[in-house]
């Protein structure tokens, strides 16, 4: 049984992966996947930070665009910005069985005016990072 | 036989003869996930293949006394910019037991077996002893996942 927090994470990851024509990677600690905890170049890296649990909860997400081609990194960043500006919510699903997502009849929301990327200096690749708070109804 | 090959052979014999290890055996563990949904972290199945490092590596647990170790990243142990911490394991491993490709495999971890419980280790960094452009030995810094 997934918790709402897990559902929020899964839903946002799937939202990006389904709507962006670029590789999306979730950054997480996983003993069965040791490489999952490191940033990957030429990918959109997504990981989750601070969680404020309340009836309307906030889950911070960090979106890191890494590419060894600066022009491509800029294009990717713009695609993400366009996607997140085009909507301010996505339906929440439970992905306990990933092939059969179950609608939870509520939404994951974000402030679409808060999508701001800032550059992270690196000699070897271009890196843009965005911190975005996701809002969701925590009592289901 | 090249100089590097002779040195590798000699090093293998010395490592086997002296068995300078942690009293436990060090294994390399390759983790393979198949099926499932990698993005969500829900694997279909996970297999772990453990292979004993043979010849056995030389393993040193880093202590304050090792501050003057010849390896650079050990020499700065305890300082703010050091990659090594007290309690890390500094391993000298034969190229016969471990290849460059394996060291670069992000799905490789190390496991000490033979103690009360198996101890899984992450690789922090590695370095090579090179002769005539051929690697003779690996220097590998390991840190327990329990730390």
Folded structure, characterized:
The complex is a heterodimer of chains A (about 140) and B (about 150). Chain A has about 140 residues and is an alpha+beta fold. Chain A has a single domain, classed as 2-Layer Sandwich (STM4215-like). In chain A, about 25% of the residues lie in helices and about 40% in strands. In chain A, strands 1, 2, 3, 4, 5, 6 and 7 form a seven-stranded mixed sheet that branches. The longest helix of chain A is centred in the middle third of the chain and has 17 residues. The model of chain A has no long low-confidence stretch (mean pLDDT about 90). Chain B is built from three helices and seven strands. In chain B, β1 and β2 form a beta hairpin. Classes of the chains: A alpha+beta (about 140), B alpha+beta (about 150). Chains A and B meet through α1 and β1 of A and β1 and β2 of B.
Helical proportion of chain A, percent range: 10-25%
The total count of strands of chain B amounts to: 7
Query: What is the β-strand count of chain A?
Result: 7
Query: Measured on Cα atoms, how large is the radius of gyration of chain A?
Result: 15 Å
Roughly how many Å is the radius of gyration of chain B? Answer: 17 Å
Q: Largest interface by residue count?
A: A-B, 18 and 18 residues
Estimated structural class of chain A: alpha+beta
- In what range is the share of β-strand residues of chain A? 35-45%
Global geometry of chain A: globular
Shape of chain B: globular
Give the strand order of the largest sheet of chain B, numbering strands 1, 2, ... along the chain.
2-1-5-6-7-4-3
Mean pLDDT of chain A: 92
User: For the terminal residues of chain A, how far apart are their CA atoms?
Assistant: 13 Å
Low-confidence segments of chain A, given as residue ranges, are none
- Which assembly state applies to the chains in this document? heterodimer
Mean pLDDT of chain B: 83
Largest sheet of chain B: 7 strands, antiparallel
Give me the CATH fold name of chain A: STM4215-like
The low-confidence parts of chain B are none
């Amino acid at each position: 049984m997934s918790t709402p927090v897990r559902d929020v994470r899964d839903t946002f990851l799937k939202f990006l992966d389904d709507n962006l024509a670029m590789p999306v990677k979730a950054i997480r600690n996983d003993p069965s996947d040791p490489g999952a905890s490191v940033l990957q170049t030429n990918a959109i890296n997504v990981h989750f930070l601070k969680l404020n649990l309340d009836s309307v909860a906030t889950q911070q997400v960090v979106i890191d665009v890494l590419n060894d081609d600066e022009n491509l990194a800029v294009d990717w960043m713009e695609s993400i910005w366009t996607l997140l500006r085009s909507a301010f919510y996505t339906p929440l699903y439970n992905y306990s069985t990933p092939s059969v997502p179950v609608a939870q009849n509520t939404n994951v929301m974000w402030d679409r005016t808060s999508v701001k990327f800032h550059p992270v200096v690196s000699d070897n690749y271009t890196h843009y990072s965005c911190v975005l708070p996701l809002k969701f109804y925590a009592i289901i | 036989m090249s100089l590097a090959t002779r040195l590798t052979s000699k090093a293998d014999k010395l490592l086997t003869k002296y068995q300078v290890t942690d009293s436990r055996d060090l294994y390399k563990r390759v983790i393979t996930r198949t099926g499932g949904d990698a993005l969500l972290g829900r694997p279909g199945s996970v297999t772990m293949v453990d292979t004993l490092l043979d010849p056995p590596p030389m393993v040193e647990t880093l202590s304050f006394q090792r501050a003057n170790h010849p390896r650079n990243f050990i020499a700065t142990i305890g300082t703010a910019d050091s990659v090594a911490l007290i309690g890390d394991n500094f391993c000298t491993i034969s190229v016969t037991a471990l290849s460059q490709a394996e060291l670069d495999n992000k799905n490789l971890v190390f496991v000490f077996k033979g103690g009360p419980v198996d101890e899984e280790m992450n690789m922090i960094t590695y370095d090579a002893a090179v002769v005539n452009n051929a690697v003779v030995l690996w220097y590998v810094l390991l840190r327990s996942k329990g730390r």
